[in-house]
Automatic annotation (TrEMBL):
Domain Response regulatory: residue ranges: 5-133
Transmembrane regions: none
A Pfam entry, by short name: Response_reg
Keyword rRNA-binding attached: no
Lineage: Bacteria, Pseudomonadati, Planctomycetota, Planctomycetia, Gemmatales
4-aspartylphosphate PTM positions: D66
InterPro entries named in the record: CheY-like_superfamily (IPR011006), Sig_transdc_resp-reg_receiver (IPR001789), TCS_response_regulator (IPR052893)
PANTHER family: RESPONSE REGULATOR RCP1-RELATED, TWO-COMPONENT SYSTEM REGULATORY PROTEIN
Entry protein name: Response regulator
Keywords, alphabetical: Phosphoprotein
Alphabetical GO biological process terms: phosphorelay signal transduction system
Length: 146
């Protein structure tokens, strides 16, 4: 069985470190690949740019997607993921500090599986990450590949 990968798309270094620490505190053993902007996330998923040659059949089991990203924003990343038959079923959880209702609506309209606001307190962040991991990586039934 291949390792279950989490793709964390996060441009803020403090939030990235907080998320990685929260994964550790929540005993998430999955490999976490970090993309620091929308272009890097797209390159990783589709095996382009610095990820050329990567086995694109080995998709992450879960993508945690921030919205406010440089180069290509999170909503555009989500649009591209849902538009491609290879990635359209990839579970995408928007994990953002955005409180804008328009972001919430557009995220769901573009096919997000879930929308989670980043908790401010670290212990709440750890609890949120633990719950996301339990649901998306343990309980959730994946659709067949292809």
């Amino acid at each position: 069985m291949t390792a279950k990968i989490i793709l964390l798309v996060e441009d803020n270094q403090d939030d990235e470190e907080l998320a990685l620490l929260a994964f550790k505190q929540a005993h998430v053993a999955n490999e976490v690949v970090v993309a620091r902007d929308g272009v890097e996330a797209i390159d990783y998923l589709f095996g382009t740019g610095p990820y050329a040659g990567r086995d694109v059949a080995a998709l992450p089991q879960l993508m945690l997607l921030d919205l406010k990203l440089p180069k290509v924003d999170g909503l555009e990343v989500l649009r591209r993921v849902r538009a491609d038959p290879r990635t359209r079923r990839l579970p995408v959880v928007i994990l953002t500090s955005s409180r804008e209702e328009d972001d919430l609506i557009r995220g769901y309209d573009l096919g997000a599986n879930s929308y989670v606001r980043k908790p401010v307190a670290f212990d709440q962040f750890v609890q949120a990450v633990s719950q996301l991991q339990m649901y998306w990586l343990v309980l959730n039934e994946e659709p067949p590949k292809g």
